[in-house]
Amino acid sequence: MMRMRTIKPWWVIAAFLSGLTFAMFAEELILSTHESRLEFAAPRVHFLVGKPLERLRNASEVPFVFKITLWSGTRAHILREVPARFVVSYDLWEEKFSVTKLATPRRAARHLTDNAAEAWCLQEMSQDVTGIGATEPLWARLEIRAEDDKESGLPFGRGNITDSGISLTSLIEIFSHPAATAQPHWNVETGPVTLDELRRARPPG
Amino acid sequence: MRTLLITGIFAMVLPVACSPLPDEPPDQETGPTNVNTRLIVEKVEISGEGITKLSDPLRSEIGEVAGKNFDQTLLERLADRIKQELHAPDVRMHVVKSDMPDHVIVNFEIGAEHEKRFDLDLARFLYDSKQGWSGQGHATVNIHENAFSFGMVSDGDRLSERFAGIQAAFERKHVLTDRLQLRFDFSSYHEQWNDATLLQAAPEDIYRTRTQFSPTATVVILEPLVFSFGVDFARYRLNLPVANTESSNAVVSTLRYHQRWGSAKDRGEHDLRASYSERAGTHFLESDPVFARHEAEARYRFRRGHQDLAVGFLAGLISGRAPLFERFTLGNAETLRGWNKFDLDPLGGSHVAHGSIDYVYRGFLVFYDTGAVWDRPDQREQKQSLGLGCKKAGFQLAVAFPVRSGAADPVFYAGMNF
């Protein structure tokens, strides 16, 4: 007679919890589509913390450099690299954040909570995906770096901020060097995923 | 009446309805990136060590920030200037809300000195085409408020002798109060003499070695007036067939004034230094030579943009018989530039009067010196010299010409901090 093997309930719970934990930490960069744009969210990434937050609460503005990298087809094929620069400040009296995207035209959002300010930056990084095949595998990476007080004088420093921000070349150059150990930085990525999958996963409405 | 009312409503609503929509998105921004620029700085405070040493121009610039809008770039620049002026390891800026709405208080916190700090610097370096090389270097160790320094020097420029040897000093910058400092200087030199000096000097005036010890105290009477007093014990071994040592022990006192005002960036910065010093060799301190040496010096400097004007004045008088190292010399890298001190007075003089004007524009230097050094009134003869060169960040390269009839015999100078 064949003996039935029973699965202990605590194994089920452990598997569920480890899966949940994996899911929580693995899916830090969440992709979604809206019309022809690819949007990014990273609810677990908080860059308005630590040293940058300390500087913000001391009335200083803190520049952050963002970069989205998209791969299509294979991981070896970079579809595009899009850097952008944001300057965050914190109103000491209103106790709210303001974010300015240094681009032409310059865009800004005021009176935000910390989470809303972070989300606004990511929202501004959305990408037009017209022309990308619906079944083509995509990978995406988000990199964020806070610029240090001292380094902001060079070569993309406060003194060099213009209405059009800084040149694309210099922004890409920033990310071509690894972040200094003391420099606050965050990297998250996801993929492969197709636009079809993202559209199917989108809640109706 | 109704028609009139409808017409009125249309007149008000139509222009609004027909006005073109703005081209820009609602969140398009052209204002400052830091929202705190709307806030007003109520006051600026400075905390930490060495606040009293801040210059008046910087103080006034810091004071001007109060009442204006918060400007992070300006405040960071001021923090950097405080750091530079005080040689502070760090100056942190803290911004907090004040009691008044939309106002902030800025505090510059000057970081404490490191417990130990070691400095090595070439204090002075000079090449003179007539006198040769001169140089002076120091190593300083700061422990708490005590500074120990040790240095080496070889100087053929300042005195009628070339002296080479070691220098050591201990300084305590605060004794019970910020207004009192103590300093002990020790030096030991070997001397070399020019033939012109040896020819004119009496054998008992020439010495081979000189050792000096000088404890002094400095009191800040009332900023910017400072008074130093102390004693200077000098022993020198004469260059006689029978070795003989003499002592020149003097009471030393100096009154100094230093004031700076204005700013080089706008209306110009003024800097005025003046001092009067007296050294009295007395039998009371068992001094062999008995003398009284008086020296008055003043220097005014005006800087604006790329222009830098300096006017200097020196007058001195020695009564009694002073050793050669106390006597006044002209014709070196600082006075009557272009003249050779051994042509003017190889022994130095007991009387001196000197004036100079230096003008620098974008690093290009021109100067004029005039003065006389003498023992007896009939020896007094005013000399003049002119020169040009370049001067930048302590480094100077110049050629100077004595104004006299006959062939021009220029002197070349190159060096730092002279």
Would you give an account of this structure?
- The complex is a heterodimer of chains A (205) and B (418).
- Chain A has 5 helices and 9 strands; from the N terminus they run H-E-E-H-E-E-E-E-H-E-E-H-E-H.
- Chain A has 205 residues and is an alpha+beta fold.
- In chain A, strands 6-5-4-3-8-9 form a 6-stranded antiparallel beta sheet.
- The radius of gyration of chain A is 20 Å and the shape is globular.
- The N and C termini of chain A lie far apart (55 Å).
- Mean pLDDT of chain A is 78; it is low at 22-26 and 151-166.
- Chain B folds into 2 domains: 34-113, Roll (Ubiquitin-like (UB roll)); 116-416, Porin (Beta Barrel), CATH 2.40.160.
- Chain B contains 5 helices and 19 strands.
- The longest helix of chain B is centred in the N-terminal third of the chain and has 17 residues, at 2-18.
- Chain B is globular and about 85 Å long.
- Chain B starts with a helix and ends with a strand.
- The chains are: A alpha+beta (205), B mainly beta (418).
- The interface between A and B is medium-sized, with 25 and 24 residues.
The helical percent of chain B reads: 10-25%
Which architecture of the largest domain in chain B would the CATH scheme give at its second level?
Beta Barrel
Q: How many beta-strand runs of chain A?
A: 9
Structural class of chain A: alpha+beta
Radius of gyration of chain A: 20 Å
Strand order of the largest sheet of chain A: 6-5-4-3-8-9
Question: Which structural class fits the helix and strand makeup of chain B?
Answer: mainly beta
Please count the helical segments of chain A: 5
Measured by DSSP, the beta-strand proportion of chain B falls in over 45%
| Mean model confidence by pLDDT of chain B | 86
Sequence-ordered SSE layout with sheet pairings:
The complex is a heterodimer of chains A (205) and B (418).
Chain A: H1 9-26, E1 30-34, E2 37-41, H2 50-56, E3 62-72, E4 78-91, E5 96-101, E6 107-112, H3 114-123, E7 127-128, E8 138-146, H4 168-176, E9 185-193, H5 195-201
Antiparallel strand pairs in A: 1-2, 2-7, 3-4, 3-8, 4-5, 5-6, 8-9
Chain B: H1 2-18, E1 40-48, H2 56-63, H3 72-86, E2 91-97, E3 103-110, E4 116-128, E5 132-143, E6 146-155, E7 161-172, E8 180-193, H4 195-200, E9 207-222, E10 225-238, E11 245-263, E12 268-281, E13 291-304, E14 307-320, H5 341-344, E15 351-361, E16 364-374, E17 383-392, E18 395-402, E19 411-416
Parallel strand pairs in B: 1-3
Antiparallel strand pairs in B: 2-3, 4-5, 4-19, 5-6, 6-7, 7-8, 8-9, 9-10, 10-11, 11-12, 12-13, 13-14, 14-15, 15-16, 16-17, 17-18, 18-19
